Amino acid sequence: MATPDGIGRGTSLLGSTARSETPVRRIRAALTRVGSSAAVAATLVLASSLITAPAAHAQVPPPDADPFYAAPADLAAYPEGAIVDSRQTALFGLPLPVSTWQVKYRSTDASGAAVADVATVMVPMVPWFGPGPRPLLSYQIAEDSLGSRCAPSYALRGGGDPGGTQALIDTPFMADALIRGWAVVTSDHEGPQSRFLDGVNSGRGVLDGIRAARDLPAAGLGPATPLAAWGYSGGAFATLWAAQMQPQYAPDIHFAGIAAGGVPSNWPAIAQHVDGTMQAGLAMLIVIAATRDNPGAGILDLLNDRGRAMIAADRAACGPDLVTKYINARVDDYATVPNLLGQPAFRAATDPHELGAPAPNVPMYLYHSTSDDVVPVAGFTDLLGRYCAQGAAITSAHSVLPGHNPTAVGESFGAMAYLADRVAGVPVAPGCHER
Question: What is 57-265+354-434's CATH number?
Answer without folding.
Answer: 3.40.50.1820
